[in-house]
Amino acid sequence: MEKEERSAGIKILDFLCNGATVEGLMFYGLKLHISESESNSDRIKGQIYINIESDFCIFDTMPKEIPLHDDLPKLNLVESSKLLCELRLKKIKDISLSKKSPHLFLTFETGEVLFIWGHHDKYESWQVGVIDTSMDNDIWLVVACPNDSLAVWGPEDILGKN
User: Fold this and answer.
1) What DSSP designation does 54 have?
2) 21 close to 112: Cβ distance less than 8 angstroms
3) Which residues of the chain, if any, have pLDDT below 70?
4) What are the DSSP E strand ranges found in the chain?
């Protein structure tokens, strides 16, 4: 992952997720719905989501090292959904990405950490964005792409390109 794309990704992820609360779960795939936060509610006009397409786990605290893929639990849809439901109404206080692969860490006020595996050779591992049905709003999207790259779309003022 390039340093610039990682930096841009963190800026958009932080704006969308920091201070937000897990509101719900969509069962067609695994898609967490999260609330707006105090810092972004004037700007976000849609539903913020985290689409999980790879293995994940919830740690009690931030792990000292990035877990190995083989150490992550292999969960079916029902087990995954039950685990993610445990995050309901919990507030996100920090977001981070690992440096080489776009492994995503969401830290909650409880200290728990949702870790989403970010590496795949052929497929996207996760996406964070805003579902917006209007045509006149900003595009917000961060995608963990194949081969450890990150695609980022967001307003220039948030990305620091002005």
Assistant:
1) S
2) no
3) 133-137, 161-162
4) 22-26, 30-34, 47-52, 56-59, 92-97, 104-108, 113-116, 126-131, 141-145, 149-153
